[in-house]
Amino acid sequence: MNSHPLRQHIEEIIPLTDEEFAYIFGHFTTIYRRRHQYLVQEGELVNKEFWVVKGCLKSCFFDKEGKEHILQFAMENWWVTDYEAFNNRVEATVSVDCIEDCELLYISYEDREKLSSEMHKMERFWAKKTKLGYIALQNRILSLLKDPAKVRFEKLLKQYPLLFQRVPKKMIASYLGVSRETLSRLYT
Amino acid sequence: MNSHPLRQHIEEIIPLTDEEFAYIFGHFTTIYRRRHQYLVQEGELVNKEFWVVKGCLKSCFFDKEGKEHILQFAMENWWVTDYEAFNNRVEATVSVDCIEDCELLYISYEDREKLSSEMHKMERFWAKKTKLGYIALQNRILSLLKDPAKVRFEKLLKQYPLLFQRVPKKMIASYLGVSRETLSRLYT
DNA sequence: TCCCGGATGTGATCTACCTCACATATTTGT
DNA sequence: ACAAATATGTGAGGTAGATCACATCCGGGA
Fold it and tell me: Domain Cyclic nucleotide-binding: where (chains A, B) (predicted)?
């Protein structure tokens, strides 16, 4: 219990007592999902936020032509859900599905609210996570505005070299906002 | 005091007692800045977060060719600073400057941390604000990935019609990620 | 009031990236 | 181990949007 990976993850930001972690952990549930299974599907109400223990997932949007656009990848120690649907209690517009077989922990919306209200520390933890996420998204926007496809590709490669061994190139392309053909021509 | 616009703004999310608001408000300072003056400049340490009482500003990044890219506009009731520099205590890469003469409130980093620690309500308020901001950025990314310039333009026009009367078109273009010439050809 | 710098419109190229088409390799489920 | 599905490479041609060039217009400061 002392060294559960979720505890380590939270303690990167906020120290916890054994009792606190035990209490927090009591609000999470473990689930397993196989490759290609969905955690969130477009149109559903979203009542869970997931934390990746093991595996790799994507959150993506399908436009009216059926083309996939990837908002986020999630690997070990990442949080994922459709945040708009989860926070605003509306139907999902985004899907979350498994690229590999996954082990996940999830917390329900109600329990997340409850923990946030009861424990200032958890409010603080999630607030900090959201801030970091906000900054990351801002940098991604900036990169989309100013960098050509090749530079965006190189930055991603540098930041997440693992990604290129774990997910198909066409998904990398969807994340970067280029066609798979163009991405292919950016290396080779 | 009862109806200070900052109080109304906070109370859209969390109710406050008179004492609470007075205490919070005591941590803010009013400043005035004229058109073209900077609130944050590239290279500085950023110790303040601003809240716009009156006026219009932009936060922007200049690439190595000197081309401006706009991350955010800020008008009445918006928060603005270089969030990466502010939260991570590093030098600004982004500039914030006034498009119109402005009246602003600001809070220092230390006071923001202090208020967040002391008052769970304020932690909650800022956490909620950051979540909403995160969702907005995610939607902007999605729009950059899937929508052609014309659609991005129309969405912005629909969401913030006021913007088009208050800021020059070339800044709208920088925000959308198109050249001012292309933007011009999207209407007319 | 006048003048100057910024804001805007518009034509003429140019190019990064897209789409379509097809060949080939690599997984993966059974 | 096999068949089907998925992933990847690469050519050809098309297009949204960039860049450059120039004309006009407008607002705000001295």
Answer: 34-115
